[in-house]
Amino acid sequence: MTAMTLGEIQRPDARRAPLGRLLRSELRMVLRRPRTLILVGLLALVPVIAGIGIWIAADASANSGNSVDEGLAGLVDGNGLLLPVFALVIGLNMLLPLTGAMLAADALAGEAASGTMRTLLLAPVSRSRLLAVKAFGVATVTLFVVALMAFTGTIAGVILLGGDGMMTMSGTTLPLGEALGRILLTVLLVTVQVWALAAVALAVSAWTEHPLIVVVVALGVVILSGVLSAIPALDWLDPVLMTTSWMGIPEVIRDPLPTGTLTEGVLRAACYIVIGYSLALSRMLSRDG
C-alpha cells in the first residue's frame, strides 16, 4: 500500500508533459477543427472582397466623372497599402470579435460540452498550466487570423488599387517601408483588442458548458459597449468601454502617429485581458474535476 501511494505521488511528475509539446498539441487541435478552418478562410477573403468592391466603385466613379465617397474607403482608392488597415478596421466591428469569442468558447466550454474537460482536469497538468495552454491557443490563432487578413489585404490592395506608398489622413505620403510598418502596427493593435474580448469570453467559458452562451455574452458586451458609447449623456463611461479603443485604430494612418491615443487603447485592452484571465483562472482552480 505504501509503494502504491508513493507510485501515485511520483507518477504525475514522471508523466508531466513538456510545455512545448502541450502548446503544439493545442495549436494542432484548434487548427484542425473544421469550423476554425472555414472561419480562417472566410476572414482571409474579407480584404479581397473589400478591395474588389472599392475597385469596382472607383471604376464606376471614374466613368461617371464622380469621386469615390469620402472617408477611409475613399482614401483607399489608388492607395492600395491602406486596404489591409481598412479591412482590419471593418473586421474589428464584428467578424474578429466573433472569431475571438468562438475560439474562447471552444477552449473551455466546448471541452466541457464534449466531456473532455473532466479528463483534462484529472490529467497530471496543473489547472493554471492548462488554462495558460488554452489561452495560448486562442491568442496564437487570433494573431494568425489578423496577420493573414493583413497579408491578403496588402497583396489585394497592391494588385487591385495600386500605389507604392501610403497616403495618410494627414495628407502626407509614407514610403513603402514605413507603410508596411504601419500595417504591422495595425495588426498588433487589432490583435490586442481581440485578445481583450477573448479574455472576457474565456472567463465566461470557464463558468459554463455551453459554447453558444459564451459567444452570445461576448457579442453582447460588444453591442452594449457600442450602444452606451453612442449616448452623449453617458460619455463618462467611455474610458471603461471596450469599444472606445476600437474607434482609435484608424488613427494609425495619421502622420505624425498619435501615440497617446493608441497607447491608451492598448492599456485599456490590457486591463480587460488581466481581469478576464484572472476570473477564468479563479474558476479553473475552484471547479470540481
Automatic annotation (TrEMBL):
Keywords from the UniProt entry: Membrane, Transmembrane, Transmembrane helix
Pfam families: ABC2_membrane_2 (PF12679)
Residue stretches spanning the membrane: 37-58, 81-109, 130-163, 183-205, 212-234, 266-285
Protein name: ABC transporter permease subunit
